[in-house]
Amino acid sequence: MGIFFVALAGAICIFVLICVIRDSNRFVTVRYRIADRRIKKKQRIVLLADLHNKSYGKDNEKLLLAIADAAPDLVVSAGDLITSVPGQSMEVAERLVERLAGQYPFYYGNGNHECRIYHDKKKFKGMGKEYRSVLQKCGVCLLENRTIELPACGIRFVGLDLMQKHYRKFQEGELPVAELQRVLGNSDRDRYTILIAHNPAFFDSYAAWGADLTLSGHVHGGIMRLPFVGGVLSTSLRLFPKYDGGLFEKGEKKMIISRGLGSHTIPLRLFNPAELVVIDLEPEG
User: Fold this and answer.
1) Strands (DSSP E) along the chain, which ranges?
2) Which is more confident, 109 or 167?
3) Kind plus residue range of the DSSP H or E element containing 118
4) CA–CA distance, 275 with 51 (Å, rounded to integer)
5) Taking the complete model, does pTM exceed 0.90, yes or no?
6) What is the rounded CA–CA span in Å between residue 26 and residue 18?
7) Mean pLDDT of the chain
8) What is the DSSP pairing of strand 146-150 with strand 155-159?
9) How many C-beta atoms lie closer than 10 Å to residue 22's C-beta?
10) CA pair distance 208, 210, nearest whole angstrom
11) How far apart are CA 51 and CA 220, in angstroms?
């Protein structure tokens, strides 16, 4: 009997190891459809988040092929395409952005890793300047507490540039609606408002501010996912995060959270493959 349990435990360990290796090196494409009366024409969005310099094949060819197959009208980054490690190369993310920005309109919202390299110049030296220069040279639209209107489509993108205090470990903190109004202004109820906000923990505030659809990432799907439970651990090291990945609704307000395309710090995934998110926006009716 003892040998049986040892053999069983060994088999389970091997199975879990295989799943970790597989899920840490693949991505799946997930699709969502959003309809609203204010949307004037169909738009397909490819959402990228939490790549963390991961490459699927040489020069990310597998990822680029999947994006081309999706045939988007535009690409949105919800942040953390790079990893904020002093001196670490950002070439993987830079080359991916360059390739995509040459083919599609590209709207970029920051994550906590972009925030670090941009604001902590002493620690990261010229990394922030280098990365921002690459994005600007290839025509990426940087949405740092900034709005871009697409009047022909009836939509507007708003990028929220959250500060490091909103990414603290072990705690969510607070994000008052008044703070959103201060940095973003008032929402426009006449246009369908898409808020790019890397940390999904503040969905209540985003919805109360007036975001019709929030696009987020950050949580990496909970790193490991369990049936009937969902994500186990957030990147803020909180157990069983409320918002881990997928579509969430609060009345008519919606939030789509990408489970991310890469990893950092805890460089593994279990029952939680990376995601390429495709969103179809359509006029209602």
Assistant:
1) 27-36, 43-48, 74-77, 106-108, 141-142, 146-150, 155-159, 192-196, 213-216, 225-226, 230-231, 246-250, 253-257, 274-283
2) 109
3) helix 112-119
4) 10
5) yes
6) 12
7) 93
8) antiparallel
9) 12
10) 5
11) 10
